[in-house]
Amino acid sequence: MIIRKPTIAVLLTCHNRKDKTLKSLRNLFEQDGLEIDFKVEVFLVDDGCKDGTSDAVKEHFPLVNIIQGNGNLYWNRGMHLAWQTAVNAKDFDYYLWLNDDTFLNKTAVQTLYQKNNSQAIVCGTTQSQKHQKASYGGYSKKPRKLIIPNGKYQRIDYCNGNCVLIPRDVYQKLGLLDPVFHHALGDFDYSLRARKIGIAIYVAPEYIGSCEIHDKVPVWQCSSISWRKRLQSLYSASSGCNPAEFLVFEKRHNSLLTAYFHYFTIHLRVFFPKLWNTN
Protein backbone atom coordinates (compact mmCIF):
# COMPACT_ATOMS: atom_id res chain seq x y z
CA MET A 1 0.00 0.00 0.00
CA ILE A 2 1.41 3.38 -1.05
CA ILE A 3 0.95 6.09 1.57
CA ARG A 4 0.40 9.50 0.06
CA LYS A 5 2.84 12.13 1.35
CA PRO A 6 1.33 15.44 2.51
CA THR A 7 2.18 18.26 0.10
CA ILE A 8 3.48 21.55 1.45
CA ALA A 9 3.90 24.84 -0.43
CA VAL A 10 6.57 26.91 1.32
CA LEU A 11 6.02 30.63 0.78
CA LEU A 12 8.75 33.28 1.07
CA THR A 13 9.38 36.82 -0.11
CA CYS A 14 12.75 38.57 -0.16
CA HIS A 15 14.44 41.86 -0.95
CA ASN A 16 18.23 42.25 -1.05
CA ARG A 17 19.09 39.76 1.69
CA LYS A 18 20.81 37.17 -0.45
CA ASP A 19 22.89 35.54 2.27
CA LYS A 20 19.97 35.30 4.68
CA THR A 21 17.64 34.02 1.97
CA LEU A 22 20.11 31.30 1.01
CA LYS A 23 20.63 30.30 4.64
CA SER A 24 16.89 30.17 5.24
CA LEU A 25 16.39 27.91 2.21
CA ARG A 26 19.37 25.75 3.16
CA ASN A 27 17.97 25.18 6.65
CA LEU A 28 14.59 24.36 5.15
CA PHE A 29 15.96 21.72 2.80
CA GLU A 30 18.13 20.22 5.56
CA GLN A 31 15.08 19.34 7.66
CA ASP A 32 15.11 15.83 9.11
CA GLY A 33 13.07 13.50 6.92
CA LEU A 34 11.76 16.31 4.74
CA GLU A 35 11.75 14.44 1.43
CA ILE A 36 10.79 11.16 3.10
CA ASP A 37 7.71 12.44 4.94
CA PHE A 38 6.54 15.31 2.73
CA LYS A 39 6.43 16.59 -0.81
CA VAL A 40 7.66 20.17 -0.59
CA GLU A 41 7.59 22.89 -3.24
CA VAL A 42 8.98 26.37 -2.60
CA PHE A 43 7.55 29.62 -3.98
CA LEU A 44 9.88 32.59 -3.52
CA VAL A 45 9.01 36.15 -4.50
CA ASP A 46 12.07 38.18 -5.50
CA ASP A 47 10.74 41.66 -4.82
CA GLY A 48 13.14 43.67 -6.93
CA CYS A 49 16.40 42.32 -5.50
CA LYS A 50 19.53 44.03 -6.82
CA ASP A 51 22.01 41.78 -5.02
CA GLY A 52 21.79 38.71 -7.25
CA THR A 53 19.41 36.76 -4.99
CA SER A 54 17.54 35.09 -7.86
CA ASP A 55 20.72 33.94 -9.60
CA ALA A 56 22.12 32.55 -6.36
CA VAL A 57 18.89 30.70 -5.57
CA LYS A 58 18.78 29.25 -9.10
CA GLU A 59 22.35 28.03 -8.69
CA HIS A 60 21.97 26.43 -5.26
CA PHE A 61 18.26 25.49 -5.26
CA PRO A 62 17.20 25.07 -8.90
CA LEU A 63 13.79 23.58 -8.02
CA VAL A 64 12.63 26.71 -6.19
CA ASN A 65 9.89 28.58 -8.04
CA ILE A 66 11.01 32.21 -8.32
CA ILE A 67 8.35 34.85 -8.87
CA GLN A 68 9.45 38.34 -9.85
CA GLY A 69 7.94 41.20 -7.85
CA ASN A 70 7.90 44.88 -8.72
CA GLY A 71 10.12 46.00 -5.82
CA ASN A 72 7.21 47.51 -3.91
CA LEU A 73 5.44 44.49 -2.48
CA TYR A 74 7.16 44.23 0.90
CA TRP A 75 6.23 41.36 3.23
CA ASN A 76 2.46 41.04 3.11
CA ARG A 77 1.89 41.68 -0.58
CA GLY A 78 4.95 39.59 -1.45
CA MET A 79 3.59 36.67 0.58
CA HIS A 80 0.16 37.21 -1.00
CA LEU A 81 1.73 36.86 -4.46
CA ALA A 82 3.70 33.75 -3.45
CA TRP A 83 0.56 32.17 -2.00
CA GLN A 84 -1.60 33.02 -5.00
CA THR A 85 1.01 31.54 -7.32
CA ALA A 86 1.13 28.34 -5.26
CA VAL A 87 -2.66 28.02 -5.25
CA ASN A 88 -2.77 28.47 -9.02
CA ALA A 89 -0.06 25.84 -9.48
CA LYS A 90 -1.44 22.98 -7.40
CA ASP A 91 -3.89 21.94 -4.69
CA PHE A 92 -1.52 21.67 -1.72
CA ASP A 93 -2.39 20.08 1.63
CA TYR A 94 -0.51 22.76 3.59
CA TYR A 95 0.97 26.21 3.14
CA LEU A 96 4.02 27.19 5.19
CA TRP A 97 4.80 30.87 5.68
CA LEU A 98 8.54 31.30 6.15
CA ASN A 99 10.49 34.53 6.58
CA ASP A 100 13.79 34.66 4.73
CA ASP A 101 15.53 35.78 7.95
CA THR A 102 14.13 32.83 9.91
CA PHE A 103 16.52 29.90 10.19
CA LEU A 104 14.81 26.62 11.02
CA ASN A 105 16.00 23.88 13.33
CA LYS A 106 16.24 20.44 11.74
CA THR A 107 12.94 19.26 13.25
CA ALA A 108 10.90 22.44 12.68
CA VAL A 109 8.58 21.19 9.92
CA GLN A 110 7.93 17.91 11.74
CA THR A 111 7.14 19.82 14.93
CA LEU A 112 4.64 22.06 13.17
CA TYR A 113 3.06 19.12 11.36
CA GLN A 114 2.79 16.80 14.37
CA LYS A 115 -0.36 18.57 15.56
CA ASN A 116 -1.73 17.27 12.24
CA ASN A 117 -5.11 18.94 12.63
CA SER A 118 -6.46 19.95 9.25
CA GLN A 119 -8.69 22.48 11.01
CA ALA A 120 -5.95 24.33 12.94
CA ILE A 121 -3.10 26.74 12.31
CA VAL A 122 0.24 26.00 13.98
CA CYS A 123 2.75 28.79 14.60
CA GLY A 124 6.43 28.38 15.38
CA THR A 125 8.31 30.47 17.95
CA THR A 126 11.74 31.80 17.06
CA GLN A 127 14.56 32.71 19.41
CA SER A 128 17.00 35.60 19.22
CA GLN A 129 20.55 34.29 19.34
CA LYS A 130 21.79 37.72 20.33
CA HIS A 131 19.43 38.23 23.26
CA GLN A 132 18.76 34.55 24.10
CA LYS A 133 15.02 35.04 24.35
CA ALA A 134 11.88 34.51 22.30
CA SER A 135 11.68 36.91 19.37
CA TYR A 136 8.58 36.08 17.29
CA GLY A 137 5.70 33.65 17.58
CA GLY A 138 2.20 33.46 19.04
CA TYR A 139 0.44 35.82 21.42
CA SER A 140 -2.38 35.91 23.91
CA LYS A 141 -4.62 39.00 23.80
CA LYS A 142 -5.42 39.36 27.50
CA PRO A 143 -2.85 39.85 28.80
CA ARG A 144 -0.99 40.70 25.60
CA LYS A 145 2.18 38.65 25.70
CA LEU A 146 4.37 36.43 23.57
CA ILE A 147 3.76 32.82 24.54
CA ILE A 148 6.92 30.90 25.44
CA PRO A 149 7.14 27.24 24.32
CA ASN A 150 6.61 24.88 27.27
CA GLY A 151 6.73 21.42 25.69
CA LYS A 152 3.03 21.39 24.79
CA TYR A 153 0.89 22.80 21.99
CA GLN A 154 -0.65 25.94 23.51
CA ARG A 155 -3.69 27.82 22.21
CA ILE A 156 -3.00 31.41 21.14
CA ASP A 157 -5.02 34.35 19.82
CA TYR A 158 -2.80 35.62 16.99
CA CYS A 159 0.70 35.28 15.63
CA ASN A 160 3.64 36.64 13.70
CA GLY A 161 4.12 35.25 10.21
CA ASN A 162 7.76 34.12 10.56
CA CYS A 163 6.93 30.41 10.45
CA VAL A 164 3.29 29.33 10.27
CA LEU A 165 1.72 26.12 8.93
CA ILE A 166 -1.75 26.57 7.43
CA PRO A 167 -3.83 23.56 6.28
CA ARG A 168 -5.82 23.58 3.05
CA ASP A 169 -9.12 23.53 4.97
CA VAL A 170 -8.20 26.77 6.73
CA TYR A 171 -7.18 28.40 3.45
CA GLN A 172 -10.47 27.37 1.88
CA LYS A 173 -12.36 29.11 4.70
CA LEU A 174 -10.19 32.23 5.04
CA GLY A 175 -8.52 32.66 1.68
CA LEU A 176 -5.21 34.46 1.28
CA LEU A 177 -3.54 37.22 3.24
CA ASP A 178 -5.41 40.49 2.71
CA PRO A 179 -3.41 42.68 0.27
CA VAL A 180 -4.94 45.83 1.78
CA PHE A 181 -1.95 45.55 4.13
CA HIS A 182 1.31 46.40 2.41
CA HIS A 183 4.03 45.18 4.74
CA ALA A 184 2.97 44.66 8.36
CA LEU A 185 -0.32 43.62 10.02
CA GLY A 186 -1.26 40.98 7.44
CA ASP A 187 -0.13 38.10 9.68
CA PHE A 188 -1.96 39.48 12.75
CA ASP A 189 -5.05 40.13 10.64
CA TYR A 190 -5.09 36.61 9.19
CA SER A 191 -4.76 34.90 12.56
CA LEU A 192 -7.36 37.13 14.20
CA ARG A 193 -9.79 36.48 11.35
CA ALA A 194 -9.19 32.78 11.87
CA ARG A 195 -10.04 33.02 15.56
CA LYS A 196 -13.23 34.96 14.80
CA ILE A 197 -14.66 32.04 12.84
CA GLY A 198 -13.56 29.44 15.38
CA ILE A 199 -10.32 28.21 13.83
CA ALA A 200 -7.87 27.17 16.53
CA ILE A 201 -4.29 28.48 16.50
CA TYR A 202 -1.54 26.72 18.40
CA VAL A 203 2.05 27.56 19.15
CA ALA A 204 4.50 24.69 18.70
CA PRO A 205 5.84 23.04 21.89
CA GLU A 206 9.47 24.01 21.26
CA TYR A 207 11.44 26.70 19.46
CA ILE A 208 11.52 26.00 15.74
CA GLY A 209 14.51 28.17 14.89
CA SER A 210 16.08 31.59 15.21
CA CYS A 211 15.23 35.10 14.04
CA GLU A 212 16.74 38.28 15.37
CA ILE A 213 14.57 40.98 16.94
CA HIS A 214 14.22 44.20 14.97
CA ASP A 215 14.69 46.40 18.02
CA LYS A 216 15.85 49.61 16.35
CA VAL A 217 13.58 52.59 17.08
CA PRO A 218 11.49 53.36 13.95
CA VAL A 219 12.38 56.58 12.13
CA TRP A 220 8.90 58.00 12.71
CA GLN A 221 9.45 57.82 16.48
CA CYS A 222 12.93 59.44 16.56
CA SER A 223 12.95 62.97 17.98
CA SER A 224 16.39 63.62 16.46
CA ILE A 225 14.86 63.51 12.97
CA SER A 226 12.73 66.31 11.52
CA TRP A 227 8.96 65.99 11.83
CA ARG A 228 8.59 66.02 8.03
CA LYS A 229 10.84 62.99 7.67
CA ARG A 230 9.11 61.30 10.61
CA LEU A 231 5.73 61.81 8.96
CA GLN A 232 7.05 60.58 5.62
CA SER A 233 8.44 57.50 7.33
CA LEU A 234 5.14 56.82 9.13
CA TYR A 235 3.29 56.66 5.82
CA SER A 236 5.91 54.45 4.17
CA ALA A 237 5.06 50.83 3.49
CA SER A 238 7.68 49.56 5.92
CA SER A 239 6.74 51.69 8.95
CA GLY A 240 4.61 48.94 10.48
CA CYS A 241 2.07 51.56 11.54
CA ASN A 242 0.87 53.08 8.28
CA PRO A 243 -2.14 55.04 9.59
CA ALA A 244 -4.55 54.14 6.76
CA GLU A 245 -3.79 50.42 7.05
CA PHE A 246 -3.76 50.51 10.84
CA LEU A 247 -7.19 52.13 10.74
CA VAL A 248 -8.54 49.23 8.69
CA PHE A 249 -6.97 46.74 11.07
CA GLU A 250 -8.33 48.41 14.23
CA LYS A 251 -11.85 48.81 12.80
CA ARG A 252 -11.85 45.14 11.81
CA HIS A 253 -10.55 43.69 15.07
CA ASN A 254 -11.30 46.21 17.79
CA SER A 255 -13.81 49.04 17.37
CA LEU A 256 -14.42 52.19 15.38
CA LEU A 257 -13.70 54.30 18.47
CA THR A 258 -10.40 52.50 19.13
CA ALA A 259 -9.44 52.81 15.46
CA TYR A 260 -9.85 56.58 15.36
CA PHE A 261 -8.29 57.03 18.79
CA HIS A 262 -5.14 55.24 17.66
CA TYR A 263 -5.22 57.08 14.33
CA PHE A 264 -4.99 60.32 16.32
CA THR A 265 -2.35 59.13 18.82
CA ILE A 266 -0.09 57.72 16.09
CA HIS A 267 0.09 61.18 14.52
CA LEU A 268 0.54 62.74 17.94
CA ARG A 269 3.50 60.47 18.48
CA VAL A 270 5.07 61.71 15.25
CA PHE A 271 4.83 65.36 16.23
CA PHE A 272 5.70 64.87 19.92
CA PRO A 273 7.92 61.77 20.08
CA LYS A 274 9.53 62.80 23.36
CA LEU A 275 6.21 62.16 25.12
CA TRP A 276 6.96 58.46 24.56
CA ASN A 277 10.61 58.74 25.65
CA THR A 278 12.02 57.78 22.24
CA ASN A 279 15.45 58.80 20.99
Structure description:
This protein is α/β, with parallel strands linked by helices and 279 residues long. The protein folds into two domains: 7-210, Alpha-Beta Complex (Spore Coat Polysaccharide Biosynthesis Protein SpsA, Chain A), CATH 3.90.550.60; 219-276, no CATH class. 35% of the residues lie in helices and 23% in strands. It contains ten helices and 13 strands. It has helices spanning 18-29, 34-37, 53-60, 74-89, 108-113, 168-174, 186-196, 227-234, 243-253, 256-271; strands at 7-14, 39-46, 65-68, 94-98, 103-104, 121-128, 133-136, 138-140, 145-146, 154-155, 158-159, 163-167, 201-210. The strands form two sheets. Strands 1, 2, 3, 4, 5, 6, 7, 10, 12 and 13 form a ten-stranded mixed beta sheet that branches. Helix 1 runs parallel beside helix 3 and helix 9 packs antiparallel against helix 10 (256-271). The radius of gyration is 19 Å and the shape is globular. The mean pLDDT is 93.
